[in-house]
Write a structure and sequence with these properties.
- The protein contains no helices and nine strands.
- The protein is mainly β.
- The chain has a single domain, classed as Jelly Rolls (Sandwich).
- The radius of gyration is 15 Å and the shape is globular.
Length: 107
């Protein structure tokens, strides 16, 4: 039985970063993908993730609302909402390192 796809909304996409909000109904999935960039995930809601991994393995992970984690490029998986409630997180992909980043945006 096919799973419902999560909803992915790109919020920022420029030369340095791509920021995407992912919203999952219970049981929804990202589909298999490989991360081409280092990335940071920040949970908007409690996220009860089922992570399906290459080779047929899977593991359950809970990421609490308001917390974040970082992963290096190359991660390959399918993320599934393994909980009974909708879940949402924001992913920031780091496309290039900052050469001389300004600490605050210009006004």
């Amino acid at each position: 039985m096919a799973r419902q796809a999560c909803v992915a909304e790109v919020m920022v996409d420029d030369a340095r970063v791509r920021v995407t909000r992912f919203v999952f109904a219970p049981g929804a999935e990202t589909g298999w993908h490989r991360h081409g960039y280092d990335y940071v995930i920040t949970a908007v809601t409690d996220c009860h993730m089922l992570l399906e991994e290459p080779g047929g393995g899977s593991r359950s992970v809970t990421v609490s609302a308001g917390t974040a984690y970082r992963r290096a490029e190359g991660v390959e998986h399918n993320v599934v909402n393994g909980g009974n409630a909708p879940m949402c997180f924001v992913e920031v992909e780091l496309k290039e390192a900052a050469a001389a980043a300004e600490p605050y945006p210009r006004t």
